[in-house]
Specification:
Helix content of chain A: 40-55%
Number of helices of chain B: 3
Number of strands of chain A: 17
Largest sheet of chain A: 9 strands, mixed
Strand order of the largest sheet of chain A: 3-7-8-11-1-12-13-14-15
Oligomer: heterodimer
Number of domains of chain A: 3
Strand content of chain B: 5-15%
Radius of gyration of chain B: 23 Å
Number of helices of chain A: 16
Strand content of chain A: 15-25%
Radius of gyration of chain A: 31 Å
Helix content of chain B: 25-40%
Strand order of the largest sheet of chain B: 2-3
Shape of chain B: flat
Number of strands of chain B: 3
Amino acid sequence: MSAAFDVIIGLEVHVELKTASKLFCGCSTAFGSAPNSQTCPVCLGMPGVLPVLNREAVRLAVRSALALNCTVRPYSKFDRKQYFYPDLPKAYQISQYDLPLAEYGWVNIRPSGQDVKRVGIRRIHLEEDAGKLNHLGQRLGDAVGSLVDLNRAGVPLIEIVSEPDMRSAEEARLYLTELRAVLSYLDVSDLRMEEGSLRCDANVSLRPRGYTGSLEELPRVEIKNVNSIRNVQRGIEYEIARQAELLSRGERIVRETRGFDDVSGRTYSQRSKEEAHDYRYFPEPDLPPLVLQSEWIEKERAALPPLPDAIRQDLIARGIPDKDVEVLVLDREAYQYWKEASPAFSDDRLLVNWMLSDVSRLLNAQGRTFGDCPVRPRQLVELLTLIQEGTLSGRMAKEVLDAMFETGQDAKTVVKQKGLSQITDESALMQVVQRVLEAHAHVVEDYLSGKDKALAYLVGQVMKETRGQAKPDLVNRLLKEAIRGGQTVSG
Amino acid sequence: MGLSDQEILHVARLARLRLTTAELPGIRRDLNRVLDYVSQLQALDLADIPPTMHVVNMEMPLRDDVVAPSLSVEEATKNAPQVEAGMFKVPRIVESEGGGDDG
């Protein structure tokens, strides 16, 4: 049974830019300081003060816009968005309304089993963040009051508004993941959802089949302030089910803002006492228009680092499996680790395989990331080279890696200390093989009479004698050669 | 065409102004006179005039991204009617589903 409607999702993503000072004043943007210790007359909204725009915030915003394939406007302006809320000391937010910094970009997403899909970006504008409210109660609806911390008020943000191009919660997740990956390579933001430096509001509506009106007129629900990509996806899934249920009962969907409760997995109404949004935007009289020279914009474009789509192509061309490519691309630190290790090692597949299995396992266990991995790329390459040369078996190498993780020592040091290292000297190994054959003559007879399993027993005996330091396939070959040789001599 | 009482009350509410019924006729008369005055602009032929984005003909001055000292918490919160834990204390903000007193 196919649904009687299409799901329409658009996302608004707010990203705090990584500047040292706020957008319009010199207060620090550091996270986690004592409440209201980073405020001044400008960001407190005192009368008579004037905002002065932060050059670095403009640069980081333009860099983001270019990386997201947007057209940067040579001429944009700031406007006042007016509403009363306790986290907004001036009772207006300086934002950009009809002439935003950039427009018409996109990111590509890869829904599983489908072609690459392009999700449009309608606009990116620069604005100031609001303060932080600490509600005195379980949640906003039950709060008896709130405490306002204005350290965040005035921190530079970009708002990235997507087109309503996503058709499922999964596509919304992929869009957010890709957006975050692109921004991570630009190094424009900390991108920590749990600290609020990356925030997402999701607009969800259901379009009945056969509906011919505009998307704007569909009743739309905005899910606000969700604190992880996973919860954005959950919130959207819940909202699709809730709206579908209402429609199936012939009920109306109310246009409203809803919160998400991550314990119950439900969205809940957050009707504000304020009337329907009526912000009375007007041009910010305290700020003249922002004029950007095309030479400067092109200089910023030329300075962009390699971005996920280009990195994907490069990694795939090196024969790295698609699944591993995705993991590397979406984790900038892992990619940079690989990039440092790769030139010194000939087998990219083996390198990536070790990174994403054994190294990742150890990192996860310690709550670390590739950025602070105790085994540096050079050290991992040395370990893998020992495998390639046949000095270590894969199993031994894992043991060595564990020790390297604990001690930070190089692979060769650990190998020496533990007395490991595979016996690759055939003549040395042949002596052990001969000893084993002499000691187990009856097993050799079994083997010669057709019991193939007897050989495995002999291999096991050689491995035991060598304390696991022999290469099983080499032992196998030497045993067969020795038995055949013995036959010839005796026969 | 003048403003209706309903429009005036809506704008007053957005601006957090409490108007009494007695004040309404006077406000309506004053506002409509302002709008009439400004509406003279409608008579001008502006076909070849580029839009004015800002009344001051200058480009945006920019500042370097340098941290300057902030106020102390005491100074910052000095004018607040209520302070708790170094923060501005405000009354309850939003009503929830099924709750609230003037929804």
